[in-house]
Amino acid sequence: xxxxxxxxxxxxxxxxxxxxxxxxxxxxxxxxxxxxxxxxxxxxxxxxxxxxxxxxxxxxxxxxxxxxxxxxxxxxxxxxxxxxxxxxxxxxxxxxxxxxxxxxxxxxxxxxxxxxxxxxxxxxxxxxxxxxxxxxxxxxxxxxxxxxxxxxxxxxxxxxxxxxxxxxxxxxxxxxxxxxxxxxxxxxxxxxxxxxxxxxxxxxxxxxxxxxxxxxxxxxxxxxxxxxxxxxxxxxxxxxxxxxxxxxxxxxxxxxxxxxxxxxxxxxxxxxxxxxxxxxxxxxxxxxxxxxxxxxxxxxxxxxxxxxxxxxxxxxxxxxxxxxxxxxxxxxxxxxxxxxxxxxxxxxxxxxxxxxxxxxxxxxxxxxxxxxxxxxxxxxxxxxxxxxxxxxxxxxxxxxxxxxxxxxxxxxxxxxxxxxxxxxxxxxxxxxxxxxxxxxxxxxxxxxxxxxxxxxxxxxxxxxxxxxxxxxxxxxxxxxxxxxxxxxxxxxxxxxxxxxxxxxxxxxxxxxxxxxxxxxxxxxxxxxxxxxxxxxxxxxxxxxxxxxxxxxxxxxxxxxxxxxxxxxxxxxxxxxxxxxxxxxxxxxxxxxxxxxxxxxxxxxxxxxxxxxxxxxxxxxxxxxxxxxxxxxxxxxxxx
Length: 639
Prior knowledge:
This protein is an alpha+beta fold.
């Protein structure tokens, strides 16, 4: 695992020291080696976390004739297979690492190489003779890759902090990105929270040549449900999981498994125990004495599979505010998902023992693991009721006292009824997000709400509205998965120089899931139906029957308790006014409603807290200030 960065500088010399400083800012992604390639028109480099071929594979790597150069972040699990094919075509290798395979695959097949890679990656190639820079990102967006086109030159990097070292990069909030962030709790691809910087879309390569950008998608998951028996589907999934987990276990450094005691990580642990001869290491987070504590389940599995087990109690006097401050540095964009906090501590604990960890990310988005998919179904029936009845029910639900539960019944009922009053696409985003469009507008005149429902409409090949489950699985695979779940996992793990691999996101498994009818994913209120059937005789019934918890914190409670001082300090009227982005009165109203238990607004406030911490840490300026929004003439004064 690595971090990459670079920029072209056609027509001018490179700013001195910028690339080295950018790579220093990515050192956590690759503490074992740093290297640069500099030529007349381009500077590019990488920091390396050694996983495969510890003695070889230092980056950047060039072909013998200097025609091609590569910097690479990720893992190509079929690199040995591709190496044999390339050797048969006459290529000679100087190392055993997958980075050199990626280089010679591009030299042989050009951009067609991306279709041949199985794995997770973000890569940049420079071709000397044609003065051509090519960027590529893996199919599901497991590894991050950003770019910016400024003054006829292209900048790229694994994290935004690599861009901030270049004087040409403006540190201004993107109004579009901000509108999405406040509604969704993440910024959907291709947008970011920083003006002029975009994400390379998953499954896409980007070519920069002669001052112009050309993009092409090399992979799209097509949802084409086919009639299949549950028995045949389980046989196919069993074979695919064995292959994927076997490949994900390949490592020249110590490796472990994140075990929550839930269905997904337990399935990975089960298959890993079948295909690995090594004693497995497992890592877990506990919340001693809390209803949502999962220690009973992951200890049961650790004993069953005789793992070397480590766990950390997140209720045991840890310095949570200090960790949140650190997260503001390592999150290129605010990690508005409160689950970032336990993932931070899980990563820190794991990195003390291993360099690679397997996780269960992706199973929920490909097999239907969230209650939001069930809510999508039931809301479709609720919308047949007269609107007056739904409004009355929502108004009555708002009188239910707010609880301190992580996601209590009161919270679920209120969110469901509010969503049932929205169009179906907008409701799905609302259930995973926080503020509605109206609420975003109320946060201040400097904020431009974004039409989140349009995110679904712009996706080519999206299943029709009458196939609700597959439709919103498709949506979440394009947005929520890469821009929230995988983003969070990458930043929190790489902050501790830990590589995390998600075997469920082998593209062959994702494509297989796209052929399944919705009924094999969600049946009634049973989520991930096919996965439960697959392991029903392998895992303990306690694991199969338990409700999904998710690795998260009790945000509502902690922001009224141990995290309240941090919240009040950073969202005080003076702090909000200095930031110049949101209305102090609007934020004060949110705090009052939360502290008085009129509403549970923990997730809303967590997003606003991390936004302000991030802006302060990276000195990000609003594109439109609260003051200039009240006085339009001021906003245009610099034009």
